[in-house]
Amino acid sequence: MSLRVEILIARHFKKSVFKNSAVFIISIFISVLLLYAVFSGWKNYTRQNETSEKYQHESRKDWLNNPDKNPHRMAHYGNFAFRKSTSLSAFEFGMEPFFGNAIFLEAHKQNTANFSEAGFSNSILRFGEISVAMVLQILLPLLIFFLGFNAVAAERENGTLKLLLSQGISSKQLLVGKILGVASVIMLLFIPTILVLVLVWLMLQDFSISVDETLKMLLFIAFHFIYLIFFFVIAVLVSGSGKTSKKALISLIGIWLVFVIILPRITQAIGAYLYEAPSKIQFNSDIEKDILKQGDSHNPNDLHYKAIKDSLLTVFKVDSVEKLPFNYSGFIMTEGEKISSEIYNKHLEELLKIYEKQNSFSKTVSFFNPYIAIKNLSMGLSNTDYDSYIDFQKQAEAYRYNMAQKMNGLQIKYISNKKPAPTDKPLTINKEHWADIKEFHYEPKGVRDVLKNEIISVISIILWIILLFILIRIAAKNLKAI
Fold first, then answer.
1. Phi-psi category of residue 317: left, alpha or beta, with phi > 0 → left and psi -120 to 50 → alpha
2. What angle is formed at CA 454 by the lines to CA 450 and CA 458, rounded to 5 degrees?
3. Apex CA 139: angle with CA 133 and CA 145, to 5°?
4. What contacts 84, CB < 8 A, 6 or more positions away?
5. Distances in whole angstroms, Cα of residue 340 to Cα of each of 143, 285, 292, 345, 441
6. Fewest CB within 10 angstroms: 71, 249, 281, 417, which?
7. Given this model, what pLDDT does residue 118 score?
C-alpha cells in the first residue's frame, strides 16, 4: 500500500514544527540531558564495577593469605560477595542505587546486601537520578505531546481540516500522516541517542560482546521504540478528538501525569497495602526463634545436639567424642549449618511470595499503563530490577553455604577430637586448603529468564499496539472537520 499522501502530510508537519523556536530550545535541552545521562551512566557503571572488582580481589587475597588455622575459624572469618553491574545498567539505573552490591558471607548467618548508592547519598536521590531510560520513558513522551497536541486541532481551528478532507484525503491518511510527522521529529533525537548508546555499550565491554547481551540491547531499543509509538498515536488521536488545541494539550498533560507519575505511585502503595510484608526486624526475629526451637549447635548441653551426640557414641561404640573417628565438633557444625540454612530459606521463600504478589499486582496494572510495562522490561533487561537483586542474594547464599560446609568438612577430616593442652599449639590445617573455595562471581540472569519473568509486560505491550490500530480506525471514522 502506497504511503505517498501520508508522507507528504508528515513532511509538511515536520516543516511547520521547526518554525516554532520553542521546539529547538526543548530539543536542545533534552539532547543535553541525554548526553549528561550517558556520561553519568558511564561514570557510575565504571566506578561501581571498578570498586566491586577491586574489593572482590582484595577480599579474595585476604582469604588466601590467612595463616594455618582451624577451618571453623575460617568459616567465621568469612568472605565478601560483590555484584558487578551489566553494561545496560549504565542506561537504566532501576533499583540498583537503592539495593546494596556487597554481602558479607559467614558461617551460621545470612546477611543482606549493603553499601547502596542511596545509603551514601542525600535526599535528592529520592527523586531519581537522571538516566537515559528516564529521559526516554518520561521526558520524550512529554515532548511528543507538546509536538502533537495541535497536529489536528490546529487544522480544525484554522479551517484547513475541512479543506484537506474535501480534497480527497481520507481521515485515516490524515491521522497516519500526522503520526508519521510527529515520529519523524522525535526520531531526530531517538536515532542519534541509540547510536551513541550502542557505541558506549560496546566501549563498556571493550567491544567484546556476548549473544545474550546483544539480544538484551536489541530488545532494549525495540521496546523503547514501540513505547514511543504509543505516544505518537495518542498525541494525534487526542488532538483529533479535541475541539481546540488548548483542550487537547490539557488532556495530554493529564494523560502523561496519570501514566508516569500518579498511577505508578498508587500501584506501589496499593500492592504494599494488599500484601503486607514483615519488617526486617520481624523477619530476622522469626528466623532466630525457629532456629532456637531446633537447637543451638554451639551449646554442648542443647537437647537436640545432645541426642545426636548420644546416637553417635552408640553407633561407634565409644564412651566419649574424643574417641570418634572424625571430628565431632565439625560434624555438629555441619548439622547446625544445614538446619539454620533450611530455616532461613523457608522464611525467605515465604517473604519472596509476598513480594511476588506485590510485583504481580504492579505488573498486572501494566495492561492499563504502558509506562509500567516498559519500566519493568527496561529494568529486567539491564538486570537492575528486584528479581535480579534477589537472584544475587540467592547466588551469594549458595556460595556462603558451600563455603561454610567445606570448612566444616575440612574440620571433620583433619582436626582431632582431642583438645590441645594450654601450652600446645592450636589445632590447625595448612592454609593451602583455603584455595579450595573458588572466588565468587555473580552471573546475571539471561535474556530468556528476563522475558519469562516479564511475560506480562511483553503481552501488555503487544496488546497496547493492537489497541492503537483499533483506535486509529475508530478515530478515522469519527473525525470531524469542524
1. left
2. 115
3. 135
4. 48, 49, 52, 53, 442
5. 54, 13, 9, 9, 24
6. 281
7. 43
Backbone angles phi, psi at 428, to 5 degrees: -135, 170
CA–CA–CA angle 169, 175, 179 (5° rounding):
130
Residue 6 near residue 173 (C-beta atoms within 8 A): yes
Cα 130 → chain centroid: 16
Note the pLDDT tens digit of each residue in 91-104.
998 888 777 788 88
Distance CA 175, CA 152 (A): 8
Instruction: Quickly tell me which residue has 500526522 as its cell.
Output: 178
Check: CB of residue 204 under 8 Å from CB of residue 87.
yes
In three-state secondary structure terms, 195 is: helix
In 3D space, the residue among 18, 11, 102, 3 whose CA is nearest the CA of residue 56 turns out to be: 102
129 touches 104 (CB < 8 A): no
Q: How far is CA 376 from the centre of its chain?
A: 8
Residues 6+ apart with CB under 8 A from 157: 244, 245
CA–CA separation, 311 vs 153, rounded Å? Answer: 87
CB crowding 46-75: b at 16 or more within 10 Å, else e: eebbeebeeebeebbeebeeeeebbbbebb
Q: List the one residue out of 380, 383, 382, 390 whose CA is nearest residue 457.
A: 380
Identify which of 309, 329, 327, 334 has the alpha carbon closest to the alpha carbon of residue 319: 309
Instruction: Give the pLDDT confidence of 447-470 residue by residue, as tens digits.
Output: 999 999 899 999 999 898 899 889
